[in-house]
Batch of 3 targets.
Target 1
Amino acid sequence: MAIQPRLIVTGREADGTSVFVTDEPGKPVVVGAIPGSEFYLMWGTEDGTATVGTTPQQPKLFPFFPGAGGTRVLFLRWAPESSAPEQLADPDELAAEAEEKLPGLMGVFEPDSPGMHTTDTVDYGICLEGELHLELDNGEEVRLTPGACVVQRGTRHAWHNRSDKPALMCYILVGAERVS
């Protein structure tokens, strides 16, 4: 049975007592520009320094990639490349849909190198189901299987599901400043 993403958030009452604030299933977001894939946007923090306390907080989910000090956590179910539906819509319409549903995501992708992108984030990617290949710009690849954790440090890369089954990854993105 496939993992179903679920969000549980804790908080504090005014008197300091710990409580569960949220316990709900993740809701998939699909975009035609990445056919067959499901994004589960779970939580994020504002850029800068994260805070905790009794003040209720709402997740900061957009833009898709956090700025320096901000965070995002998401699950992404990757469809097998062999069975992903074709992109039938106009490319401009697909880009507009993706920008509406996942603001900031598509702007990092290179039009002349499908799937290749670079972000100013440190990403912790954990393979939960299936398998996924991480390709770097020099053509080297590594195959991730359940239990593999990759630390993606702002390098140019692409993800590929070359298997015949969906792959589920959990990504924790931490906004970073790029330095030489």
Target 2
Amino acid sequence: MSNPAACPVCTLENTYRDGEMNICPDCGHEWGDAVEASPADEGSKVVRDANGQVLVDGDSVILVKDLKVKGSSITLKKGAKAKGIRLVDGDHDVDCKIDGVSLMLKSEFLKKA
């Protein structure tokens, strides 16, 4: 039994087969034998919210937990809404404004509105 090809998203070869799907335990990506054109092929990264929904530029999002802002006394409250987000590369993958403050947030603390 041979391992399937390398993961098309993270390009690591630590993959395995589960039924008809190939699975990458490193990034969690799943794909079938006929690999469709994935966003990684186009050079863009798929950003998902806390519920697994794909985020795109211009979406509105809601915070799912209170967050303290580093270097400030501001605390962002659960349920605060950000409109018109921008997706960026890096550790904090969402650029937005909440209550007039420009912030870079991780998508794991957001849900699509």
Target 3
Amino acid sequence: MMIELKRTSSEDTDFETLTGLLDQDLERRYPGTRDFFQPLNKIKLDAKAVVAYEDGKPVGCGCYREAAEGQTVEIKRMYVLDENRGRGIAGQVLRELETWAKEAGKKRAILETGRGQPEAIALYTKSGYAEIDRYAPYTDREDSVCMGKDL
């Protein structure tokens, strides 16, 4: 089956549906952390989103937004439906986000994930990301893992 990638915005209804499922997944993995993370997961309207489709059905997503440093983006809201995992979809979404960021003149990507998401850490490591110091607002979050990569 072929995966189609669509560049879109954070207002895309398929992106919103998938990130709603992501929020449910994160609540199961990290009970009681919603109050801390929910405001951080609000996506600004200028975010660049990618939605992955299989046979016309949205199966995965991710986005990036400008980070504090001018030529850096922060990868956010990466998610693939449970039944579609393990087939390389998240890697395709991530590569598309990196390509889009490079086209926009960005030089570096950073991200935050959690220790309760070993599959995400494995994806990012395989994709060339390395652990970096936790950045704000995750500095004091022991369960947070921050990673970065030069594009």
